[in-house]
TrEMBL record:
Listed transmembrane segments: 81-100, 120-147, 159-179, 185-207, 214-231, 237-256, 263-282
Single GO biological process annotation from the record: proteolysis
Membrane topology of this protein: Multi-pass membrane protein
Keyword annotations of the record: Hydrolase, Membrane, Protease, Transmembrane, Transmembrane helix
Gene3D superfamilies xref list: Rhomboid-like
GO-annotated cellular components: membrane
Name this protein carries in UniProt: Membrane associated serine protease, rhomboid family
Pfam families: Rhomboid (PF01694)
Amino acid sequence: MIISASTPGAPQGTGEVPVCPRHPDRPSYVRCQRCGRPACPECQRPAAVGVQCVDCVKESARTTRSARTVFGGEIRQGRPVVTLTIIGICVVSWVLQLATGGAWTERWWFAPSIGQDEPWTFLTAAFLHSTSPLHILFNMYALWIVGQYLEPAFGRARFITLYLLAAVGGQVGVLMLASPFDDSWRTAVVGASGAIFGLFGAIFFAMKKLGRNASQILVLIAINLALPLFIPNIAWQAHVGGLLVGLALGAAYAYAPRDKRQLVAWLAPAVVGVVLLGLTVWKYSTVPSIGSLLGA
């Protein structure tokens, strides 16, 4: 009798040697507890009872729904990776600011007068800080405190979207409240404060959704909004712009219907982005007409 190994996964008792479907040259007498096919040692994966083949393990992982938070974010273990990455980028950028004598700062800062020609500065300015260590230390500390709570709650995708749109919203706030008639149009701004205020706004609604007392957040927001009254050279306009974006996205993330969370996670940022773009285009469209009235 000729022993054949040409039929992968043939049942025992037929006279044929069972072989691994992935490796037909390997006889395999151990079978997957899920599909019943032979699995060689390389393709075996420990299961609660017996072993499973790699194909069944992959299929199980694909079809099993991952655990979600009350806001729809995927539950992950470990450190807040996005928050730590943002902090790392800001620290590296700050070192480059010091090392280049201001050249790095001037390359990426934002001012209403340059935003139309260099639109990327609406975002890049949020990763810059003044040369004073207190500026970056305060912002990074606030980011760490709020980020390690919001990132796991909202999920990484929602959190990074919130942060970046709030950062852009901060510069849009500066633009909207600037006037080409005075120095505010040419004054450069730097700092993550707009994005941080966006997180403040979002965490307010997150805590309200969970039934927690959010009065401390309101006090924190009020104190920081009042700081420009006592400390000069603070772009409070960026605080307002970032806060409004954070409130909008925070409310959308927190109160989205359970069956619409994934849709809202895409739709809400898209709407906010369109609004920010529309306000920016409108503001810059008014500048030529103002200039013509001045005879420029």
